[in-house]
Amino acid sequence: MNSTPLSACPICSRVLPHDQLYDHMALESPQARQNTIRVIQGHHADWLAEQGVCEPCWKSFRDAGRVLHMLKAAHKPTAVDYWTHAEPRALSEPQDTTDNRSVY
Ligand SMILES: [Zn+2]
Is the model's pTM score more than 0.70? Predict the structure, then answer.
């Protein structure tokens, strides 16, 4: 009767009926949906919720979001900085300008 168009999951490229990229998101609570969307965008900066995502991908990111949420709740916010903080480049890069004079 209704021929459902196929769509590829933007995350894993799995091809599914278009609706299956969205149906499971509609079933989530608004808070879980927001959290999971944020987690996915943390890994796939170009991804938008309107593009949808297959259920296996969604679930794995939702679970990851739950773990992150628990970690944040259990630790001080500085614990998160540990992961995002990039080591500053060493200031003492070898500078061998002393022996660089060319001899004429
Ligand atoms: Zn997927």
Answer: no
